[in-house]
Design goal:
With 219 residues, the protein is mainly β. It has 1 helix and 28 strands.
Amino acid sequence: MSAEVHPTAIVYPGTVLGEGVKVLEHAVVGKQPTLSPRSTAKREPLPPTVIGAGTIVSTGAIVFAGSTIGERVILGDQSCVRERVAIGDDVVVGRGSLVENDTTIGAMTKIQADAYITAYSTLEEHVFIAPCVVTTNDNWMGRTEKRFGNIKGPTIRRGARIGGGAILCPAIEIGEDAFVGAGAVVTKDVPPRVVVVGSPARVLRNVPEDELLDAAAPR
């Protein structure tokens, strides 16, 4: 095995580290979750963590058991990836960001510093999440039995971009190549290829053709 694990890091037994993986100072990989008796998270046994080739688990980062991290991923300093998370190749999770349980993140997605990706979210490929974005998954905020079975984070489609400090309400869908302006509060689905701003977010205009993902891709 050619993985590089710093002496201060903790890698739990059974963890799979791919070729060239680096686990830096005080990082923790393969940690089992400790759940509150009132937690709504699943409690079945978790398989080992799998870290793909060339991935860097940076200083103080934590990756929980049952998660699969793709190749060439960067998990920034003090970031955290909870259990049953699947992260594709070439993803960046910025410093201090938290990806909660049962979330899927597609390849080439970039999550910048101090973002909060709530449990049961889906981010497709080439999504951009600016610093301090907040996503939510519980319309009842922990009260009433009605919430059980209805907890769901947002679905952010391919190429969508979310501006700094935006808040996404539970279960909404952000359409492909949509653009959510900084500080927006998104309370309902956003159509593909439009710009939304404000609180509550409203459509401002279409995304310019030259800013669409396929138009911007290198040729």
